[in-house]
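FAQ

Q: What does a record look like?
A: Structure on top, sequence underneath. For example:
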């Protein structure tokens, strides 16, 4: 491959991840009380604020409730469908609550041009619209779940919530009761059937890369647990860094794993967005805070020098926030060299 991607739409950053839920207010409170994420801006949008709302290219009526919080470097957006047809209600009906889309920032190209190029490549907009009369304030979603395992959103309004949004908690001096307060979200993880193919598709379609691919599993870990019990397995991981965040692709190769479980449950057209990662200085402390709150470990492992607690991870599903969180004690470097690179 050439070092320069041939992608016509090139991503410079992934500033936000979207979660679809049935109750924004309860989800906001859960993020604040469990992980200390906040403050949140909560607002309503849809018809008639979006006069040209479209659903699969056709005029539509819909109302939604949303909330946003800025967690560096990835912000979180919550969306609750209230009325009418929408890709958000479709998601709830098909997959339930959970991680729904990534928002991309691209090189200096207008959304209309992006829509034309995406449609030309076989990805027509599935929901779009303008916020009020200003044609510069617009958004568009593209279903790229087959090649990229996610829905992709382009949004010209990435500066935060609209004027008049409610704030939670209302008192800016309120301290979260969370036992562990995450410093920010550093990684978005996607479970896939084929790391090499998916990484190649990201490179050719959105210009995301270069990718480093590594063979992972028990040969690199001195402890590996699956659903709380010792286990054996092999995985394949790929990493790229669009902007300040890390994008990870995970493929189960052999043995039981949360990655293979996810692919088996959702397949190519389901919810492949798998987890959000945050860094911590003490993995045991961070894990205990969540496990003691009633959220058991799904899969965990430690690597490096056991005396130094050099590195470790733990996947913990937290149903009230509708996603899996991965606390990670990150070592200075991964203890294995890449087995492949793309390009």
């Amino acid at each position: 491959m050439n070092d320069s991607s041939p992608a016509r739409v090139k991503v410079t950053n992934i500033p936000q991840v979207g979660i679809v839920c049935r109750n924004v207010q309860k989800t906001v409170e859960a993020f604040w009380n469990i992980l200390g994420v906040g403050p949140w801006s909560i607002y309503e949008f849809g018809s008639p604020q979006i006069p040209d709302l479209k659903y699969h290219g056709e005029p539509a009526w819909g109302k939604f409730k949303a909330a946003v919080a800025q967690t560096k470097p990835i912000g979180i957006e919550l969306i609750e469908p209230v009325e009418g047809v929408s890709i958000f209600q479709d998601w709830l009906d098909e997959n339930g609550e959970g991680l729904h889309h990534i928002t991309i920032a691209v090189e200096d190209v207008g959304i209309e041009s992006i829509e034309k190029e995406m449609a030309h490549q076989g990805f027509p907009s599935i929901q779009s619209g303008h916020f009020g009369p200003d044609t510069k304030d617009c958004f568009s979603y593209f279903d790229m779940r087959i090649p990229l395992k996610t829905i992709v959103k382009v949004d010209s309004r990435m500066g935060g919530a609209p004027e008049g949004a409610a704030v939670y908690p209302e008192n800016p001096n309120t301290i979260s009761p969370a036992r562990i307060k995450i410093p920010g979200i550093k990684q978005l993880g996607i479970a896939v059937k084929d790391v090499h193919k998916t990484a190649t598709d990201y490179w050719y379609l959105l210009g995301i890369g270069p990718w480093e691919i590594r063979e992972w599993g028990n040969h690199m870990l001195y402890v590996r647990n699956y659903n709380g019990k010792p286990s054996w397995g092999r995985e394949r991981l790929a990493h790229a860094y669009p902007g300040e965040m890390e994008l990870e692709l995970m493929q189960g190769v052999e043995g039981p794993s949360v990655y293979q479980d996810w692919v088996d449950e959702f397949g190519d057209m389901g919810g492949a967005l798998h987890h959000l990662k945050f860094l911590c200085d003490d993995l045991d402390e961070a894990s205990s805070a969540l496990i003691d709150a009633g959220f058991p470990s799904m899969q965990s492992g430690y690597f490096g020098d056991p005396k130094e607690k050099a590195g470790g991870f733990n996947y913990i599903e937290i149903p009230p926030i509708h996603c899996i969180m991965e606390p990670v004690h990150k070592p200075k470097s991964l203890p294995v060299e890449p087995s492949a690179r793309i390009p």
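Q: Is there anything notable about this one?
A: The first helix runs from residue 24 to 35.
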